[in-house]
Specification:
single chain, 59 residues, alpha+beta, two-stranded antiparallel ribbon, 1 helix, 2 strands, 10% helix
Length: 59
């Protein structure tokens, strides 16, 4: 049985929607296409989901 994979933002699983794999500080994360714009354009909204993320002044 494989471990459950879910979107770091909306928590939908790969049984519900396609997920994109990403890594941050050696950890594996998943995000769905619907939530990808949040990661790109509203990164501070997801900062708590990625321990150790530093936000630059322009974000």
């Amino acid at each position: 049985m494989k471990p459950e994979t879910k979107c770091v933002n909306c928590e939908r699983t790969d049984e519900q929607t396609p997920l994109i794999t990403l890594t941050f500080k050696g950890e594996l994360y998943f995000i769905c296409a619907q939530c990808l714009p949040v990661l790109i354009h509203k990164t501070p909204m997801l900062a708590e989901k990625f321990p150790g993320m530093e936000l630059s002044a322009h974000e």
